[in-house]
Specification:
43% helix, six-stranded parallel β-sheet, Rossmann fold, 2 domains, 10 helices
Length: 212
């Protein structure tokens, strides 16, 4: 059997934080009078550097967004989705590496580790936005995660919830499993090899049996 790995986005896949971020970024769009429809959806999967570069051309705007984001992440909860811990434990028992590939900044991850000190130990490695030069939908983060796992992206399974993230997974060549935790089935149909509504009841054997 070829070596494989499970590669995970963070927000909306492992952590139930997407509604919080959607509210935060839609509020930012109102504060700065951005003429962008569904701003929070448009930026999902992007690093903060790309968001600032694409939508906030003035340094004072960038500084304001970063100040608000830092304050928000200092107090936000990091609830782990049901079934995640069990699925990760099964991966570990089966000897399948689990790696996070997130657009989140290291500073946000530090907050998460402080709130959930056991979280990092659930994974073999964690790729953040600081480790890549291109945001999703570019596949760089998943190609890097596969390399860290010691296998080809084509032999990996990517778990994603956003349009940009699903596109990144597909572009990497991995088998992509979309979670309908952020967007409905209808929005993700055709953008992944399989759709699931969460990890509760989802097994490693089910992952390995996904048809491409």
């Amino acid at each position: 059997m070829k070596k494989t790995a499970a590669l995970f986005d963070l927000d909306g896949v492992l952590i139930d934080s997407e509604p919080l971020y959607s509210e935060f970024y839609d509020n930012i769009a109102r504060i700065h009078d951005l003429k962008v429809d569904n701003f929070s959806q448009a930026i999902k999967g992007s690093t903060i550097g790309k968001i600032l570069a694409d939508y906030f051309p003035i340094e004072a705007m960038k500084a304001d967004v970063m100040r608000r984001l830092n304050e928000f992440e200092l107090s936000m909860p990091f609830p782990i989705f049901d079934g995640v811990a069990e699925f990760l434990a099964e991966l570990k028992d089966r000897g399948i590496p689990a790696i996070i590939a997130t657009s989140s900044a290291p500073e946000k991850m530090d907050q998460l580790y402080r709130r959930l000190p056991e979280f990092a130990s659930m994974f073999d490695a964690i790729v953040t936005g600081a480790d890549v030069t291109k945001s999703k939908p570019d596949p760089e983060c998943y190609i890097l995660a596969a390399k860290i796992a010691g296998c080809s992206p084509e032999d990996c399974y990517v778990f994603e919830d956003s349009i940009n993230g699903l596109a990144a997974g597909m572009a990497s060549g991995a088998t992509v499993i979309g979670l309908t935790t952020t967007l409905p089935d209808s929005a993700l149909k055709g953008k992944a090899h399989k759709l699931i509504d969460g990890f509760t009841g989802f097994s490693v054997d089910q992952m390995l049996s996904v048809d491409r």
